[in-house]
Design a protein that fits this description.
This protein has 13 helices and no strands. It is an all-alpha fold. It is elongated.
Length: 243
């Protein structure tokens, strides 16, 4: 028996609307499905994508208000979402709407939710990655490097995405400091980890990082090679999706 089958299917359809670039349709679909009990993890996914859908239609303030209110007293799916997911959703909304102070507040709140268990490292990783990225974007390279280095030291303990994000972050810091040999070493680590972990997304991120390093060094041949490889991977992936 699969008691949540109908609701799970509706949730997947709502998520698909967002990825089909139809956020205006995704909003009511995801809000409706969050009133129902959902299968493992789907409520969290629905909430995060609901937040992104509000940003996509330019309704940051309205979306934030509705998510905060509905999370406090609403249906079964809303109640299934964790406090960490709600915090991540609000952080994502603030970050995408370029509200750095509020985004930083949510990341600190996320870090405060963590405890000493391995599972909490997911929250710590997400918070540190976001704070590191924000420090990098405002030019505070020392702070950014400290956050990224903390995550890089948690290899295999944080998610694959967070680990490679931290290595790429350290690569960007090295480029900004014109430490190109260090950047090259880090880019190679990103490539090696992407091959080890597998998955098209990680490989795309790693090859984009290698391209960035080659561009910074003025190595046009390496830039072309890395870019061509990445385009070939994307073409191959799109062909499989269409098939």
């Amino acid at each position: 028996p699969w008691p949540s089958f109908a609701a799970d299917l509706a949730a997947l359809r709502g998520l698909l609307l967002f990825y089909q670039f139809r956020p205006g349709e995704a909003i009511p679909a995801l809000e409706a499905v969050l009133e129902r009990p959902l299968g493992l993890g789907l409520a969290d996914q629905a909430l995060i994508i609901l937040g992104r859908s509000y940003i996509a239609v330019g309704q940051h303030a309205e979306g934030r208000r509705r998510i905060v209110e509905r999370s406090a007293s609403a249906g079964a799916g809303w109640q299934q979402t964790s406090e960490a997911t709600r915090t991540i959703t609000l952080f994502t909304m603030h970050a995408l709407s370029s509200n750095a102070p509020l985004a930083a507040d949510e990341l600190r709140r996320l870090g405060a939710l963590a405890d000493a268990t391995d599972e909490s490292l997911i929250m710590v990783g997400y918070a540190s990655a976001g704070l590191g990225r924000m420090a990098y974007e405002r030019g505070d390279l020392a702070t950014a490097a400290a956050y990224f280095q903390q995550l890089a030291g948690l290899k295999y303990r944080v998610s694959n995405f967070i680990y490679i994000f931290s290595v790429i972050g350290l690569t960007l810091v090295a480029i900004a400091r014109e430490a190109y040999a260090e950047a090259e070493t880090l880019a190679q680590e990103a490539l090696a980890f992407a091959e080890e972990a597998g998955g098209a997304f990680l490989r795309h991120q790693a090859h984009a990082c290698a391209t960035r390093v080659a561009l910074a060094r003025g190595d046009l041949l390496a830039t072309f090679s890395a870019g061509a490889y990445g385009m070939a991977m994307a073409s191959n992936y799109n062909s499989r999706v269409r098939a």
